[in-house]
Amino acid sequence: xxxxxxxxxxxxxxxxxxxxxxxxxxxxxxxxxxxxxxxxxxxxxxxxxxxxxxxxxxxxxxxxxxxxxxxxxxxxxxxxxxxxxxxxxxxxxxxxxxxxxxxxxxxxxxxxxxxxxxxxxxxxxxxxxxxxxxxxxxxxxxxxxxxxxxxxxxxxxxxxxxxxxxxxxxxxxxxxxxxxxxxxxxxxxxxxxxxxxxxxxxxxxxxxxxxxxxxxxxxxxxxxxxxxxxxxxxxxxxxxxxxxxxxxxxxxxxxxxxxxxxxxxxxxxxxxxxxxxxxxxxxxxxxxxxxxxxxxxxxxxxxxxxxxxxxxxxxxxxxxxxxxxxxxxxxxxxxxxxxxxxxxxxxxxxxxxxxxxxxxxxxxxxxxxxxxxxxxxxxxxxxxxxxxxxxxxxxxxxxxxxxxxxxxxxxxxxxxxxxxxxxxxxxxxxxxxxxxxxxxxxxxxxxxxxxxxxxxxxxxxxxxxxxxxxxxxxxxxxxxxxxxxxxxxxxxxxxxxxxxxxxxxxxxxxxxxxxxxxxxxxxxxxxxxxxxxxxxxxxxxxxxxxxxxxxxxxxxxxxxxxxxxxxxxxxxxxxxxxxxxxxxxxxxxxxxxxxxxxxxxxxxxxxxxxxxxxxxxxxxxxxxxxxxxxxxxxxxxxxxxxxxxxxxxxxxxxxxxxxxxxxxxxxxxxxxxxxxxxxxxxxx
Length: 684
What we know:
There is one protein chain. The protein has 684 residues and is α+β, with helices and mostly antiparallel strands. The protein folds into five domains: 5-71, Alpha-Beta Plaits, CATH 3.30.70.100; 83-181 and 295-357 and 630-681, no CATH class; 191-276, Distorted Sandwich (Calcium-transporting ATPase, cytoplasmic transduction domain A); 369-396 and 511-614, 3-Layer(aba) Sandwich (Rossmann fold); 400-508, Calcium-transporting ATPase, cytoplasmic domain N, CATH 3.40.1110.10. It is built from 23 helices and 24 strands. Strands 5, 6, 7, 8, 9, 10 and 11 form a seven-stranded antiparallel beta sheet that branches. It has a seven-stranded mixed beta sheet with strand order 12-24-23-22-13-20-21, with helices on both faces. β22 (576-580), α20 (586-591) and β23 (594-598) form a beta-alpha-beta unit. The longest helix is centred in the C-terminal third of the chain and has 36 residues, at 618-653. It is elongated.
């Protein structure tokens, strides 16, 4: 049986998180839709379709609720929100005001007409979705407007509808701006590319590029697709999606991202991924996935909002039907109840958290920090310890073989045996062995890896291994060489055949230039960094001293199991962020409070952790952004709850009326959205 197909759609008319829940519920009930996930922040629906006809059924189901389902890439242009109805309502309201001044006897009728025209689209949407959500904002505003007309408050009814429609337009505009900012990365790609062909260069549209094409990128132009430099040298700026302000030098063999800007020099790049499937597209996909995974704060707010509306509506019923029995003034209490009905909508509160999370995820994507969930963004703000792997994290991850000390065999034989074993391993030291100059690898088979010990293979009929010296029983002369080389700060691997030591291989890795500053930044943020490595203590101390770590912050000689236990312990002592390469440290990354991988564009690293870092320099930015986002979440919740509570009290006391209740809802919603958008422009 064919697996369900996943399709991505844009949902038009979805202007709050409550709408997203409504749309998701409706889509999940459509026959042929195996699963539907809807994100208010991105405005997208992700459908697993069992049959192609289900797409049409899903579109009809949403159309009945007042929404429109469009395939990705077929977005409708124009202004967002019900701006036409807002203009019509505003024009009629202005006309009604004129009538009330010139012909007072017709003023009430004119205000009634303005109110009815304005409430019509809201009443229509309320009817469509009543069975699914009887307490939608459209229902509440419709009831309040018609109720105000019934008690003779025609002018206020018209003003309420007009203010609400204006609020919806402003809200839709704010949400559209947030969504555009979130996906602005794709706009970095140029519209054309200069493809090399026999006899010269041809200018082609981006979609015409294919994997393997050679493209020329002149100075001042953006790289059209992910690829590798095959000719030329240039300074390339990647700040838009790595957060690094300074351009990087690129030459033959270096990888470049589509969308990066060539500032000086010129490059010829071999295309490795189609522009629509490149690194920028991967970043957008990760951001979308993050928005589908709710944070703890979002779940708490959702649970509260589901109880808030019925509670305030019950209070409105009590004010309208019970209090007049004891205090009289039936119309006055009905007026207060109508104000409470407007305040009962939890839109601003429901939007307060996802809007901030969406802005934080979007800002992170442009700062070299790829959050895979809102929960990871939230948890990162609370950790106390930062555990860092050594190879590939604090160092460049490209060690080189610098010395071979043999015991009874020639250097050439030792290297040939070592290369044979290294062919079956992905460890950075094995890669360094394969890339070392000298003899070719001897034929090998039956490759296997033993965690915490090393790599083995059968070479010339005998078992040969590259192992950690400290995990092996060493003769005195070998032990002396191990000690001497380790004191010089080398990483070591022992070549053994049938259990007998044949050679010591000494490697040297280069610390990242930014490592010292990153560690200093972490300390300024109040975090405690720790180096976790399987290297010997002398080698780890040599690296630690070079990058500014203190001896008590270094844990050396750790196996993957030791790392896992230590991370579990730190997680229980206040939370730990584990930073690794995303491959060898997968168990520790999974057990940490938050796992971060220094990805630099590799898919394996992004899939292993909660957060991907495009460079080590992005690590402090991740913590700052997480704390800043959590601060905005708290501000939004306080603002929305505070305004609701204030107007709830003043409405009960009779100090405020219907139009101020509308401002309490629409105004708060616009304010929390605008406050969240600040994150997109924040300095991290």
